[in-house]
Amino acid sequence: MDSEVALHTSIPAGLDRKESEIYSRLDPRRLPRHIAIIMDGNGRWARQRHLPRVAGHRAGVESVRSTVETAARIHLPALTLYAFSSENWKKRPPREVDFLMRLLRRYLKAEVPTLNQNNIRLEYIGRRHELPDAVQERMQWAQQATAKNTGMVLTLALNYGARMELVDAFNAIVQAAANNGGLRHLKIDEELIDRHLYTRHLPDPDLVIRTSGEMRLSNFLLWQVAYAEIYVTATHWPDFRGRHLLEAIAEYQTRERRYGGLSDGHGAHT
């Protein structure tokens, strides 16, 4: 058996039959370094079943668990989940927001053992200081409880908005310059902005997945996804599982990433 075949027959432990079948078609050397997911469709999932919206959010927790565990098992370096946007404060009823905050606290408490079993380190992006105190305390506890893990980095985007992130980055850059000799010699370039983004601990996403069929980024990682591949599935988030993540990676591996350049085989005058 040659090395190419051997690569494809080495199935990570813990994958179920369907996941193993999809993984066997992947090239493990070409996995994305970072996948970001816009988890959409909880409300539509619930409405189709004549259930309250909160039932969709509750069902979505199992989707998070399945997706995170599969990502860790295949040794994906980084996974970011868009859990709660800065716009949700205004666009969701207060009772629903309160439910989401309580659900987040329960999720963090319940999932820390699983994160540790899978060697997953938990991080956050967004204005966490604007979240309720009890949520902040649980977030800090969960982060500290997983801080020594050395496997996949799971980042939850909470009270996050990409435009807000850029505003915070520019303000931080200006404040740092004002405290260190003034603005006269300030030179802003892409590297400087990168260092002041919430995601400075992460590589830029290679792949963005959006569930529920919507064709928009919804103010998510706008700077970081400049060259990311985008994969949209009609599957609502509560129905999304690890096998769907692997299907998205399989599609990703069929694409040619050019980063603004020409495709292979095309001359400069094509």
Q: How does this model look, in words?
A:
By secondary structure, this protein is α/β, with parallel strands linked by helices. The protein has one domain: Decaprenyl diphosphate synthase-like (Undecaprenyl pyrophosphate synthetase, 3-Layer(aba) Sandwich). Helices cover 43% and strands 13% of the residues. A 6-stranded parallel sheet has the order 3-4-2-1-5-6, sandwiched between helices. β3, α7 and β4 form a beta-alpha-beta unit. α4 crosses α10. The chain is globular and about 60 Å long. The mean pLDDT is 92.
Offer a quick outline of the entry.
This protein has about 270 residues and is an alpha/beta fold. The chain has ten helices and six strands, in the order H-H-E-H-H-E-H-H-E-H-E-H-H-E-E-H.
Largest sheet: 6 strands, parallel
Number of helices: 10
CATH structural architecture: 3-Layer(aba) Sandwich
Q: Span between N and C termini?
A: 41 Å
Strand order of the largest sheet: 3-4-2-1-5-6
CATH topology: Undecaprenyl pyrophosphate synthetase
Q: Please give the CATH class.
A: Alpha Beta
- Structural class, from secondary structure content? alpha/beta
Tell me the domain tally.
1
Helix/strand order: HHEHHEHHEHEHHEEH
The percent of residues in helical segments reads 40-55%
Number-wise, the strands total 6
